[in-house]
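Annex B.
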Amino acid sequence: MTLSAIAINCSLKSGPEPSSTDAMIGLLVSELKKHGVAFTETIRIAQHDVKPGVTSDEGEGDAWPDIRRRILAADILIFGTPIWVGQMSSLAQRVIERMDAFLSETDDAGRMPSFGKVALVAVVGNEDGAHHVSGQLYQTLNDTGWTLAAGAVCYWTGEAMHKTDFRDLPAIPDKVSQTAAMAASNAAHLAALLKATAYPGLPG
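Flavodoxin family protein: predicted C-alpha coordinates.
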Protein backbone atom coordinates (compact mmCIF):
# COMPACT_ATOMS: atom_id res chain seq x y z
CA MET A 1 0.00 0.00 0.00
CA THR A 2 1.40 3.39 -1.01
CA LEU A 3 0.90 6.22 1.48
CA SER A 4 1.57 9.90 0.90
CA ALA A 5 2.29 12.81 3.22
CA ILE A 6 2.18 16.59 2.85
CA ALA A 7 3.21 19.35 5.23
CA ILE A 8 2.04 22.87 5.95
CA ASN A 9 4.53 25.24 7.53
CA CYS A 10 2.84 28.04 9.48
CA SER A 11 6.05 29.96 10.11
CA LEU A 12 5.63 33.72 9.94
CA LYS A 13 8.65 33.86 7.63
CA SER A 14 7.58 34.26 4.01
CA GLY A 15 11.06 34.28 2.53
CA PRO A 16 12.81 31.32 0.95
CA GLU A 17 15.29 30.75 3.81
CA PRO A 18 14.70 27.58 5.85
CA SER A 19 12.93 27.99 9.18
CA SER A 20 13.18 25.92 12.35
CA THR A 21 9.66 24.70 11.60
CA ASP A 22 11.01 23.40 8.27
CA ALA A 23 13.74 21.57 10.16
CA MET A 24 11.24 19.83 12.46
CA ILE A 25 8.99 18.96 9.51
CA GLY A 26 12.05 17.57 7.73
CA LEU A 27 12.84 15.31 10.69
CA LEU A 28 9.33 13.82 10.59
CA VAL A 29 9.48 13.45 6.81
CA SER A 30 12.75 11.52 7.00
CA GLU A 31 11.19 9.15 9.54
CA LEU A 32 8.01 8.69 7.49
CA LYS A 33 10.07 7.77 4.44
CA LYS A 34 11.55 4.88 6.43
CA HIS A 35 8.01 3.45 6.47
CA GLY A 36 7.55 3.81 2.72
CA VAL A 37 5.54 7.04 2.90
CA ALA A 38 6.00 9.25 -0.17
CA PHE A 39 6.38 12.94 0.64
CA THR A 40 4.87 15.40 -1.81
CA GLU A 41 5.65 18.94 -0.62
CA THR A 42 5.74 21.51 2.15
CA ILE A 43 3.34 24.42 1.72
CA ARG A 44 4.55 27.56 3.47
CA ILE A 45 1.34 29.36 4.33
CA ALA A 46 3.01 32.79 4.56
CA GLN A 47 3.75 32.60 0.83
CA HIS A 48 0.07 32.25 -0.07
CA ASP A 49 -2.92 34.55 0.26
CA VAL A 50 -5.03 32.46 2.62
CA LYS A 51 -7.89 34.83 3.33
CA PRO A 52 -9.60 35.04 6.73
CA GLY A 53 -12.90 33.21 7.04
CA VAL A 54 -14.54 29.92 7.92
CA THR A 55 -15.58 28.63 4.50
CA SER A 56 -13.61 26.57 1.99
CA ASP A 57 -13.61 29.38 -0.56
CA GLU A 58 -13.51 33.05 0.43
CA GLY A 59 -13.68 34.35 -3.11
CA GLU A 60 -11.37 35.87 -5.68
CA GLY A 61 -7.68 35.52 -4.93
CA ASP A 62 -8.15 33.08 -2.06
CA ALA A 63 -5.33 30.51 -2.03
CA TRP A 64 -7.05 28.17 0.41
CA PRO A 65 -9.19 26.15 -2.07
CA ASP A 66 -6.08 24.83 -3.83
CA ILE A 67 -4.22 24.22 -0.55
CA ARG A 68 -7.29 22.41 0.77
CA ARG A 69 -7.33 20.18 -2.30
CA ARG A 70 -3.65 19.32 -1.93
CA ILE A 71 -3.73 18.46 1.78
CA LEU A 72 -6.85 16.32 1.38
CA ALA A 73 -5.20 14.38 -1.45
CA ALA A 74 -2.56 13.05 0.98
CA ASP A 75 -2.96 10.35 3.60
CA ILE A 76 -0.92 12.16 6.28
CA LEU A 77 -0.78 15.87 7.10
CA ILE A 78 2.17 17.29 9.02
CA PHE A 79 0.96 20.50 10.65
CA GLY A 80 3.97 22.63 11.57
CA THR A 81 3.93 25.79 13.65
CA PRO A 82 6.33 27.87 15.70
CA ILE A 83 5.41 29.17 19.14
CA TRP A 84 4.87 32.92 19.42
CA VAL A 85 3.99 34.53 22.78
CA GLY A 86 3.08 31.07 24.04
CA GLN A 87 0.60 30.35 21.23
CA MET A 88 0.57 28.72 17.80
CA SER A 89 1.31 31.23 15.06
CA SER A 90 -1.47 33.43 13.71
CA LEU A 91 -1.17 31.62 10.38
CA ALA A 92 -1.74 28.27 12.08
CA GLN A 93 -4.86 29.70 13.70
CA ARG A 94 -6.06 30.91 10.30
CA VAL A 95 -5.61 27.45 8.79
CA ILE A 96 -7.61 25.92 11.64
CA GLU A 97 -10.37 28.49 11.09
CA ARG A 98 -10.55 27.60 7.40
CA MET A 99 -10.78 23.89 8.27
CA ASP A 100 -13.88 24.68 10.31
CA ALA A 101 -15.78 24.44 7.03
CA PHE A 102 -15.24 20.66 7.07
CA LEU A 103 -17.94 20.37 9.74
CA SER A 104 -20.60 21.33 7.20
CA GLU A 105 -19.10 19.45 4.24
CA THR A 106 -20.02 15.92 5.26
CA ASP A 107 -20.99 13.12 2.90
CA ASP A 108 -24.19 11.07 3.09
CA ALA A 109 -22.72 9.07 5.99
CA GLY A 110 -21.87 12.21 7.97
CA ARG A 111 -18.12 11.98 7.30
CA MET A 112 -16.05 15.12 6.90
CA PRO A 113 -13.62 15.28 3.94
CA SER A 114 -10.72 14.83 6.37
CA PHE A 115 -12.10 11.54 7.77
CA GLY A 116 -9.55 8.77 7.29
CA LYS A 117 -6.66 11.25 7.10
CA VAL A 118 -3.94 11.22 9.78
CA ALA A 119 -2.35 14.34 11.26
CA LEU A 120 1.06 14.85 12.85
CA VAL A 121 2.05 18.01 14.72
CA ALA A 122 5.48 19.68 14.56
CA VAL A 123 6.19 22.49 17.04
CA VAL A 124 9.30 24.60 17.64
CA GLY A 125 10.03 27.61 19.81
CA ASN A 126 12.41 29.29 22.19
CA GLU A 127 9.99 29.41 25.09
CA ASP A 128 7.64 27.15 27.01
CA GLY A 129 4.37 26.34 25.28
CA ALA A 130 4.83 23.16 23.24
CA HIS A 131 2.31 21.21 25.32
CA HIS A 132 -0.16 24.09 25.18
CA VAL A 133 0.13 24.46 21.40
CA SER A 134 -0.04 20.72 20.70
CA GLY A 135 -3.08 20.47 22.99
CA GLN A 136 -4.82 23.21 21.02
CA LEU A 137 -3.96 21.58 17.70
CA TYR A 138 -4.92 18.09 18.87
CA GLN A 139 -8.44 19.22 19.68
CA THR A 140 -8.97 21.45 16.67
CA LEU A 141 -7.56 18.91 14.20
CA ASN A 142 -9.67 16.15 15.75
CA ASP A 143 -12.76 18.37 15.77
CA THR A 144 -12.30 18.99 12.04
CA GLY A 145 -12.06 15.28 11.21
CA TRP A 146 -8.36 14.41 11.32
CA THR A 147 -7.19 11.32 13.21
CA LEU A 148 -4.16 11.45 15.50
CA ALA A 149 -2.06 8.43 16.36
CA ALA A 150 -0.48 7.87 19.77
CA GLY A 151 2.33 10.37 20.38
CA ALA A 152 1.39 12.51 17.39
CA VAL A 153 3.61 15.51 18.17
CA CYS A 154 7.33 16.14 17.93
CA TYR A 155 8.58 19.37 19.45
CA TRP A 156 11.62 21.26 20.67
CA THR A 157 11.81 24.34 22.84
CA GLY A 158 15.03 26.06 23.84
CA GLU A 159 15.87 27.62 27.17
CA ALA A 160 13.79 30.61 28.23
CA MET A 161 15.17 33.94 27.01
CA HIS A 162 17.63 32.06 24.81
CA LYS A 163 18.51 32.91 21.19
CA THR A 164 19.25 29.45 19.80
CA ASP A 165 16.94 28.17 17.05
CA PHE A 166 16.24 24.50 16.40
CA ARG A 167 17.70 24.74 12.90
CA ASP A 168 21.00 26.01 14.39
CA LEU A 169 21.57 23.14 16.83
CA PRO A 170 24.84 21.27 16.16
CA ALA A 171 22.93 17.99 16.46
CA ILE A 172 19.34 16.91 16.96
CA PRO A 173 18.85 15.84 20.60
CA ASP A 174 18.42 12.08 20.99
CA LYS A 175 15.03 12.45 22.65
CA VAL A 176 13.71 14.56 19.77
CA SER A 177 14.96 12.00 17.24
CA GLN A 178 13.35 9.16 19.19
CA THR A 179 10.07 11.06 19.47
CA ALA A 180 10.02 11.78 15.73
CA ALA A 181 10.68 8.12 14.94
CA MET A 182 7.82 6.93 17.14
CA ALA A 183 5.40 9.60 15.89
CA ALA A 184 6.15 8.75 12.26
CA SER A 185 5.87 4.99 12.85
CA ASN A 186 2.51 5.35 14.59
CA ALA A 187 1.17 7.75 11.93
CA ALA A 188 2.18 5.50 9.04
CA HIS A 189 0.65 2.46 10.76
CA LEU A 190 -2.62 4.27 11.46
CA ALA A 191 -2.83 5.79 7.96
CA ALA A 192 -2.46 2.32 6.42
CA LEU A 193 -5.25 0.95 8.62
CA LEU A 194 -7.60 3.82 7.75
CA LYS A 195 -6.82 3.60 4.05
CA ALA A 196 -7.62 -0.11 4.09
CA THR A 197 -10.75 0.24 6.23
CA ALA A 198 -12.52 3.60 6.18
CA TYR A 199 -14.60 4.96 9.01
CA PRO A 200 -18.15 3.61 8.54
CA GLY A 201 -19.93 6.89 9.29
CA LEU A 202 -23.58 7.06 10.23
CA PRO A 203 -25.87 4.22 9.09
CA GLY A 204 -27.91 5.05 6.00
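Residues 54 and 133 are 21 Å apart (CA to CA). The first strand starts at residue 3 and ends at 9. Further annotation is deferred to the next reporting cycle.
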